Every structure is written in C-alpha cells, then in structure tokens.
Amino acid sequence: MSENALFRVEDLVASYGAVKALNGVSLSVAEGSICAVLGANGAGKTTLLRTVSGLKRADSGRIWLGDTDLTRCAPERLARLGVAHVPEGAGIIVELTVEENLRLGGLWRSDRAATLSSTYDLFPILRERRNQPASNLSGGERQMLAIGRALMCRPRILLLDEPSLGLAPMATRQLMDLIRQLCADTGLTVLLVEQNANSALSIADEGVVLNLGTIAVSDTADRLLSDDQMRHAYLGF
Amino acid sequence: MDYFTNLTLNGVAEGAIYAALALSLIIIYQATRVVNFAQPALALIAAYIALTVTTASGSYWLGFAAALVSGLLMGSVTERLLIRPVQKTSQLSAIIITLGLLLLLQGVAGMIWSNEPHSFSYPMDFEGRFSPADIFGVAAVLGTAMLLFALYRWTPLGLRMRAAAAHPEMARMLGVRVGLMLTLGWGIATVVGALAGMLAAPPFVYPNVLDSVFVYGLAAAVIGGLDNPFGSLLGGFILGISLSFVSGYLGPELMPLAALIILILVLSVRPDGLFTRPKARKV
Predict the structure, then answer these.
(1) Which pTM was predicted?
(2) Membrane spanning segments where (chain B) (predicted)?
(3) CB-CB: which of A55, A79, A96 is closest to B163?
(4) What integer is the mean pLDDT of A199-206?
C-alpha cells in the first residue's frame, strides 16, 4: 500500500467503556481501488466504519482523505467532504419514497438533477420504482438504493458495511460485480467491510483482516484468497 | 334546522382551533416523540406578546405577527436549551420538562400581565353566524396546514426534516444537520400553536385561558392518530362539531365529558387513531 494513498487510517484507537474495540488500526487505500476489511464478529469492523464516519469518537489516531483530516469530523460534514457511508442493513429510510431517499444523498449539490438521472441509468430498477415507498423494495434493491444514494454526493470514498448481509448468493454476486464495475468506470475508492470473505476478496485489490481490534494480516486480495492458514485462523473456513 | 346549521358552523370554527393545536403537537411528536405539554403556555405567552404589541402600536395585525414570530423563537429556544440536553437520557424527561415549563410559563404570565383577564380583540367582526372572524380562523388554519404540507412534501428542507425525524443517524450521514432540523420543527410547531392561541383567546386572555382548548386539541390529535397530520386536522374538526352538538342539544357543561367519551370510544376501536393505516411490517 502506497504512502500517498487517498484514504489513510493511522493508529486508530476507539473503545466502548473499558473495552478497546479498535487498538491501533492503520490502513491505507489507494485511489480507485477496493480494500476489503475482513474479520469475525466483534473484530471491530463496524466500529472502524463508525469511527471513520464520525458516529463514534476516536480515542486517538488520525483519519485522512487526501490532505483533509477527517478525525473528529461531524458525520453531517463528512458527506460534503466526499465520504459516503452505506451502513449495515443499507440504512434505507422506509418512510420516504425511493426517489426521496436518492435525492437526500446530495441535496446540497447544484448538479443533483444530473446525478439523479445518471444514478437511475445505473439502476434502472430504481427508476421504475421511483415513486414507491422504499419499504416495498427487496433486500437486493435496498442495497442498490443505498449505494445509489451514496453516489448522489459524488463521493471520493465509499464505505460499505456488510452489503451482502441477508442477500441470496446470486444477488451478492451481482452486487459485488456492480461495485467492481463502479470502481473501474468512475475511479471510486471503496472500503468494503465484509464477513463474506470470498465474495469481498474476489473483487478487492487489497485486504486486511481485523482480529480483536488489531490488524492481523494485510496483503493483496489474491494472496489472501490463496492463504489457507490465514483463512482457517481468522475467517473460519 | 337553522339551529343545527348554527351548531355545525360553530363546531367548524371551534374545530379549526383544536385542529391547529393538534397539528402543533403532532409536528413535535413526529420529530422528537415528545408530547409537548408546554404548547398552551407557549401559545399563551405569544398571545400576551400580541396583546402588548397591539396595545402599544394600535394595530391588531402587528400584534398577530409578533405572536407568530415569538412562537418561532420560543419553540426553537425551548428545543435547543431545554429538550436537547435531556433527549439522550429518556423521552420521559423531556415530557416532564414540558410539563414543568407549562406551569412555569403560566405562573410567569400571571406575574407579568397579572392573573386578571385582559380583553383581547378578535381579528375581525365576530358577530352573527359564521362571522368574518370565524371564517378567518378556519381559513388561517387550513391555509397553514396546506403551507406545511407543501413545505414537508415538496421542498428540500421538508425532505431533510422528514429524514431527520425518521432516521436521525442515517440522515446525519447523508449530510443533514439533524439538530437544526429538530430546532426548526419545534419553532414551526410553536408558530402553529401561537396561531391557535390567537384564535382561541378572544374575548379575554388570562393565564389559564387555553387549558380546556389544549385538552381538546390533544384529544383531537389522539383521535386522528399521533402519527398522522391529516388525521389530526380532521380529528380537530370532528371533535369541534361533535362538541358543538353536545353543547347545543345537551348543555355546555357536558362538553368535557363528551370529549372524554369520544376519546375512549376511538381509542378502544382504533388505538392508533381513526385515520392511521396499519403499518407495513418492517423487514
């Protein structure tokens, strides 16, 4: 991982009471690449994302997006700085329609109308269902809506938390291909947190394995996929 | 038949006031899940401010505007200074605070403006059946409701406010300043409350003048469904007309009793309110 990466986390520490959920995590993601964050339940994956998006306060350490220091940045500012977050379960606002959910992603931008129509081009199913309540969507469609909404702010980095959760294998496959395609087409940088290590590594460039709040392994995705010992030790298959 | 028409029109005029109060409660309830018991006291202060401004300037409408502006300010300040700090602990603390604020403001109103009734003018001629004052009241409430609907449904600000109410954490991640939206929600709600106070207070204003109206407004909100602004609006009119009939045919002393009976009937048949559709199951 290069020193001039777009997104860098340096020695991040975050805790819940006396329990350190992150204990000195450092990682970096090069522009236009996908970095998969793997690990078992309780390894600190979600805490890492919540700390990056400002929902959880870091005890120490720094988070950088290019030259911008994101540490202790309020969540509502991060979206404007180019950090988009798709939380676990997609975070769809079911009280709103599909289109309202999408528009919410980039309300402050002057180019929002154009972005909306290009998002619809990317996800034709969302255009078909634009005026329906978001609660009508299936799990896969919700993930698409959440990703489409995240793209509305024209992010520099996309944080994805367990997008495959609850999806059928086919839907997971499609979703992963879509993320890969997005990166290839738009140069988007992705931090992909997954329990489904095989799916995530199949599209990632790099991978890190979190274990009890520290980085246990960090390597290219290809080498991680072929490292049986690592898989047995940390991912349990 | 003439009597019946009279009662109906009276009921519509009264119902508009209940509807406005119900609306002011629901805007806050939807945003913060708090029933704002201080609403009548905030409306009362707004009415007193209107009285002071009207007396000083000689213009009713200047006083009217002062009431609405002070409503916006008082609602925002209440949210920011009193509700926000306890919102994270429990919903109950916030509700108790609004109850405390009700008693405090009514006491303070008595200290500043005295407990004696001051005469309080109608916006327009109030004599006769469905007088200009009544028409103004109904039109003002319906107009306000339509403005609010347009604000919440069609403007980016309204979308932000709905998102902040429905899913505050996600809204923040999407760049919505949730705290500001809640403050604004309280401000807007208190403007609607102040409007209700301006319509309900005449002919006299005194510290407890809005108490009974508030109880009917709360009943209207519950009848219509606390999650449903349209329902609460309809609930206000239904309650206003029903109570007008009770008062006209059975006697005005039965009004509070009738309101309670209606409330109990509605709650036993439709606990979520008359107009709330059953929620789709969340998956």
Answers:
(1) 0.87
(2) 12-29, 60-82, 94-115, 135-154, 174-199, 205-226, 233-251, 257-275
(3) A96
(4) 92
Average pLDDT score, chain B = 91
What is the rounded distance in angstroms from the CA atom of residue B221 to the CA atom of residue B40? 14
Given an 8 Å threshold on Cβ–Cβ distance, is A53 in contact with B177? no
Q: Which among B169, B174, B283 has the least Cβ separation from residue A55?
A: B169
Give me the number of domains chain A comprises.
1
Nearest CB neighbour to A93, from listed B170, B178, B283: B170
Question: Chain B contacts of A100, Cβ < 8 Å?
Answer: 159, 162-163
| Residues above pLDDT 70, as percent of chain A | 97
- What is the chain B residue with the closest CA to A151? B174
Nearest to B156 among A74, A107, A133 (CB): A107
- What are the pLDDT digits (tens) for B151-162? 999 999 999 999
Cβ density class A68-96: b for 16+ within 10 Å, e for less: eebbebebbebbebbbbbbbbebbbbbbb
Among A78, A102, A107, A132, the residue to mutate for chain B (most B Cβ within 10 A): A107
Is A26 domain-assigned?
Answer: yes
pLDDT band at A180 (very low <50, low <70, confident <90, very high): very high
Token pair for B200: 């309900």
DSSP state for residue B225 in the 8-state scheme: -
* Lowest-pLDDT choice from A25-39, A219-233, B259-273: A219-233
Cis peptide before B203 (omega within 30 of 0): yes
Q: How far is A84 from chain B (nearest CA, A)?
A: 7
Q: B154 to chain A, minimum CA–CA distance in Å?
A: 10
Chain A residues touching B160 at Cβ < 8 A: 104, 107
- Which residues in chain B have Cβ-Cβ distances shorter than 8 Å to A55? 169, 172-173
Which residues of chain A are within 8 Å of residue B176 when distances are taken between CB atoms? 76, 104, 107
| Distance set, CA A33 to CA A130, A182, A187, A205 (Å) | 31, 11, 8, 6
Domain of A170, in residue numbers? 7-90+156-235
Domain with residue A202: its CATH number is 3.40.50.300
Which residue type, as a one-letter code, is found at position B256?
P
pLDDT of A235 > 80? The answer is no
Integer Cα distance of B87 and B84 in angstroms: 5
Q: CB distance A76–B177 less than 8 Å?
A: yes
Enter the ipTM: 0.88
Domain extents in chain B = 17-209
Closest CA to A79 of A101, A109, A117: A109
Interatomic CA distance for residues A156 and A233, integer angstroms: 33
> For residue B80, what pLDDT band results from cuts at 50, 70 and 90?
very high
The whole-angstrom separation of Cα B122 and Cα B127 is 10
